[in-house]
Amino acid sequence: MPRITVNVDGSSYTDDVQPRTLLVQYLREQLGKVGTVVGCDTSNCGACTVHMDGHSVKSCSVLAVQADGHDVTTVEGLARDGQLHPMQEAFHDNHALQCGFCTPGMIMQALDLLADNPEPDDEQVREGLEGNLCRCTGYQNIVNAVQDAAQRMQPGAGPPMEQAQETSTRTHVAGGQ
Ligand code: FES
Ligand code: FES
């Protein structure tokens, strides 16, 4: 069974995984990162979106072994010291969710979008989120939230949201599915 070491939300984890284990399974079932969710079995919904080395990936489309040696950030790694990330606050304040199932993936994808284009127009937001599906809110509030977050995240608008670099480690040699 392959052994992988992955930095997830600022903490290093070493685990044995099955070669077929998906990254989303590893995050949820071995690390307990259940904020990342599975909304489909066709890689269409985007609910499972996380960042790998700073770029969004659908974690149902990545094998856990492919994350070996990489940095993964989930929606659970965004808040700092009890303070929500500006993107999370913007989703809350703009009522950009109802059931919330799509929200972790939407937030992670929206952050990737703003990293590439800090001042998108509405059309660019919609294009950037086209791989993420929401079945209940309607997309207008989500677009509003991303635009709001873009303002909140402008340089000088608040404290920088750096990745936490905690140094905890965990070795889990008996892991498996
Ligand atoms: Fe990954 Fe739907 S669960 S795209
Ligand atoms: Fe329910 Fe988007 S808020 S799926």
UniProtKB/TrEMBL annotation:
Gene Ontology molecular function: 2 iron, 2 sulfur cluster binding; metal ion binding; oxidoreductase activity
UniProt-listed Pfam families: Fer2, Fer2_2
Transmembrane intervals: none
UniProt pathway annotation: Alkaloid degradation; nicotine degradation
InterPro entries the UniProt entry points to: 2Fe-2S-bd, 2Fe-2S-bd_dom_sf, 2Fe-2S_ferredoxin-like_sf, 2Fe-2S_ferredoxin-type, Beta-grasp_dom_sf, Diverse_Oxidoreductases
Domain 2Fe-2S ferredoxin-type: 2-78
Keywords (A to Z) from UniProt: 2Fe-2S, Iron, Iron-sulfur, Metal-binding, Oxidoreductase
SUPFAM superfamilies attached to this UniProt entry: 2Fe-2S ferredoxin-like (SSF54292), CO dehydrogenase ISP C-domain like (SSF47741)
PROSITE patterns given in the database record: 2FE2S_FER_2
Region annotation (Disordered) ranges: 153-177
Name of the protein: 2Fe-2S iron-sulfur cluster binding domain-containing protein
Organism: Allosaccharopolyspora coralli
